[in-house]
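ok trying again, last paste got cut off:
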Amino acid sequence: MGKLGIAKATNWLHFGRLHWPKSFSIVSQRLRKYTHVERTTAIFLVFLSIVFVLYIVLGHFPTIATVSEGLSAPPSEDLVKLPILVVFTMGRLFLAYGISIVVAIGMGVLAAEHKRFAAVFFPLYDIGQGVPILALFPVISLWLTGLLGNQGLALEVTCIIMLVLDMIWYMFLNIVSAVKNIPTEINEVGQLLGFRGLKRITHIVIPSILPAIVTGSILSWGTGWNTIIFAEYLPSTGSADPVSIPGIGSLLDKAGYEYGNTVVLVLMLGVISVLVLLMEAFIWRRLLRKFEKYHVEV
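nice, full thing came through this time. structure:
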């Protein structure tokens, strides 16, 4: 059962079968539910909201001269490297996500099936929830700087650690709930077939919790985008220069903290929004539809 499901999922994820235009079918189907007047009103309200935010930030409505000035002022010179910066940021997010999902599955299975582990882990988890993750950022960065002796490398490692600490918990909680809800009949069949240890996890547990993993992944990536914005840039309150690593998060921070370039700031927010929507259209919605068949009734 598990081998067949994993083989089908692997075959589906092959780029040869990826039909890009159909990924927008969900959006188009949803839009058809609304009348032309409702769609026009929604677009108009979104446009007014953007204009209102720009007016609050700039103190006046943006003009062509304002936009041109912003695109010619620092750090706009880094915009030519935007594709590379996107690759760096996405690479960090994917690396942290990979680490998070492996650790979340391991901890989730232990917490759901072993009471002693749960009795120790959940109190520590509740205590950790009271510590803002942003408060750990400078502490971990300074400690790694002293340990590694390189600020750039220390910030790179700190960024991954912060992403993992932020992304792991949504998947962990979803996995714990899903593992607990695996029907007893499925577990009994696995025992009859001799599934033990890792084989049981790959053939029984993972196929049964795939919908929960996808749902937790969507939430984890959402919080990961929030974290990447500040994790790629370490500001300085003294005479020392700020430390940053290449990425769209650090470019956004430079535009806001160092140069006050609202045009570049808004542009980078738009880039992040586009990336989020693309992942929603091409990855998460497809995964939700594909893995819905693995949903088990309790």
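cool. The beta strands are 233-234, 243-244. Residues 1-27 have pLDDT under 50 and may be disordered.
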